[in-house]
Amino acid sequence: HRDLPLKINQWANVVRWEMRTRPFLRSSEFLWQEGHTAHATSAEAIATAEEMLDVYADVVENVLAVPVVKGKKSAIERFAGADETYTIEALMPNGWALQSGTSHFLGQNFARAFDVYYQNKEAKRDLVWATSWGVSTRLLGALVMTHSDDAGLVLPPRIAPVQVALVPIVKGAEKDPEGTQTVMSLVDKVVDECEALGLRVKVDDRENMRPGAKYFEWERKGAPLRLEVGPRDAASNVMVVASRLGGEKQTIAVDEVPSYLKQRLDEMQAKLFADASQRLSDRTIDIDTYEDMKTRIANEDLGFFRVYWKADDANEKAIKEDCAATIRCYPLDAQGDLEGKTCFYSGEPATHVALFARAF
Asked: What is the pLDDT of residues 249-295, one digit of tens each?
């Protein structure tokens, strides 16, 4: 018992059969993170499963800028063999839901099946209480679908490998040695100051590409900000800043560039999350009747359909067969408003608030 809790985490590639693959979302092989824990008590295992759900939600929302709903799965959608499955559900711009991470309280079911025991304080053998939890490269699919546009990737600054693409506009040391030296000295100064602030800056000094081609490439790659500086800018001691989110270019004094970039990156992270959160809010629709939900789905008017629901496996299967909607979760923060409410499908007293949706 002194060795518990036992917590094991691994990153692994998984190969599985998929009849229809989707890039990032469902592929025959994918990379995922998988954790397993063993505990002496049920309460400790449940607390760990809930803690990991919070960790996943924090990463997805605060790093990837993708808002999620935390909830529990219905009995049908629950991981096979689990007593409880917790999930974070995201909503993509097309109105389809994407399960983005799960955490399972396994009870003692797997311990019983695989003879996983520990010695308790009384020196007797007890089955452990277990959890498992994981996320995969599916999150990259969520990231791409949530933020990107027809011009290419849009990467939130906290996840972007290159936060600032710095493009010097020079003729080269042979054609204009003095102008090139002036610009590159300024570039080196700004890069050092930006890196001191923790910013990830890439100087694109490739000589075989025109500036316009570089701008296009960094736009496609989703770099949040682009810095431009040529001999005239250097002479005026300024640089030009362009945002991946569009808007007017800004001309900034060189001494102010590092702090300005840091502020803009923070603002961009916040804006991407706010915009996605607004979409989630706008497409979370309160539904009173099954016919309303069915009609909306038939008309491709999709989103999270929030309903009062009486848990019933047969009815849940019937809905899935009829209109391809599934219960994505029972939101953790929405289960207190059930008194006097009736199920939107059966008319019986409601046991849960549920989110139905079409899902990837």
From this structure: 999 999 999 999 999 999 999 999 999 999 999 999 999 999 999 99
DSSP states along 237-253: TEEEEEETT-S--EEEE
Q: Count Cβ neighbours within 10 Å for each residue of 280-318 and write b for 16 or more, e otherwise.
A: beebbbebeebeebbebbeeeebbbbbbbbbbbeebbee
**Do the strands 304-309 and 250-253 form a parallel or antiparallel pair, or are they unpaired?**
unpaired
Give helix then strand counts, H and E, for the chain. 9, 17
Q: What CA–CA distance (Å, rounded) separates 47 from 41?
A: 10
Q: How far is CA 358 from the centre of its chain?
A: 18
Cα R_g (the chain), whole angstroms: 26
- 231 preceded by a cis bond (ω within 30 of 0): no
Phi, psi of 223 (to 5 degrees): -60, 125
Q: In angstroms, rounded to a whole number, what is the distance separating the alpha carbons of residues 157 and 271?
A: 11
**Residue 188 has which token pair?**
């080196």
Task: Tell me the two tokens of residue 308.
Answer: 């009062």
Q: How many CB atoms lie within 10 A of CB 114?
A: 8
SS (H, E, C) 105-164: EEECHHHHHHCCEEECCCCCEEECEEEEEEEECHHHHHHHHHHCECCECCCCCCCCCCCE
Tokens of 123: 């020196």
User: Are the beta carbons of 244 and 217 closer than 8 angstroms?
Assistant: no
Q: Are 135 and 34 in contact (CB under 8 A)?
A: no
pLDDT tens-digit series, residues 313-349: 999 999 999 999 999 999 999 999 899 999 999 999 9
Q: Which of 249, 256, 244, 264 is nearest to 189 (CA)?
A: 256
Give phi and psi for 82, each to the nearest 5.
-90, 150
Question: How large is the average pLDDT for residues 164-184?
Answer: 87
CA distance 91 to 89: 7
In sequence order, which residues have a C-beta less than 8 Å from that of residue 354 and are 6 or more positions away?
Answer: 74, 306, 307, 308, 309, 327, 329, 330
* Token pair of 108 as six digits: 């003692």
